[in-house]
From TrEMBL:
<dbReference type="Pfam" id="PF03308">
    <property type="entry name" value="MeaB"/>
</dbReference>
<dbReference type="InterPro" id="IPR027417">
    <property type="entry name" value="P-loop_NTPase"/>
</dbReference>
<protein>
    <submittedName>
        <fullName>Uncharacterized protein</fullName>
    </submittedName>
</protein>
Length: 149
């Protein structure tokens, strides 16, 4: 395992589980790493194996595990919160990609309160990723110094 910071997801999926020892080692490594968590939380992160060659390790158990996780998120009241946080993260990344660090800094400096009651950025967050490029195009002309407005 490489040293550094690692985000611990809610589920790990080892593909090509039919490779025998290599897949078993990957599963053991992941389970070993998960056992070192200081704050495991309420959801028990799972390590799953999938294979197109072994029907016992097909897509069915993966779908069942994903459904169980979604049900847990809903019952804990976390699903919408996590989705919104992820959209914000993707939105920031998308803006950063399209307008760069300086453009994002300019946006922060301008302060969203000086724009309409629902800013292009808020509009982007509210409607989700499907309109991200449209929101970025609406946002760019409002950033001071953007040459393509």
């Amino acid at each position: 395992m490489k040293s550094g910071i690692m985000e611990v997801p809610d589920m790990f999926v080892v593909t090509k589980a039919d490779l025998g020892d290599m897949a078993a080692k990957a599963v053991a490594d992941l389970e070993g790493a998960l056992s070192l968590r200081l704050h495991p939380g309420d959801w028990d992160a799972r390590v799953l194996q999938v294979s197109t060659l072994d029907p016992r390790l097909g897509i069915g158990p993966l779908i069942a595990a994903l459904d169980a996780h979604e049900h847990w998120l809903k019952t804990q009241g976390l699903r919408d919160l996590k989705r919104r946080d992820q959209m914000k993260s993707w939105g920031r990344t998308n803006l950063l990609l399209h307008i760069g660090r300086d453009g994002l800094a300019a946006l922060s400096e301008k302060s969203l309160r000086h724009l309409d009651s629902e800013t292009p950025f808020q509009s982007f967050i509210n409607c989700g990723l499907r309109c991200s490029f449209k929101a970025v195009k609406r946002l760019l002309p409002q950033i001071r110094g953007w040459p393509y407005g």
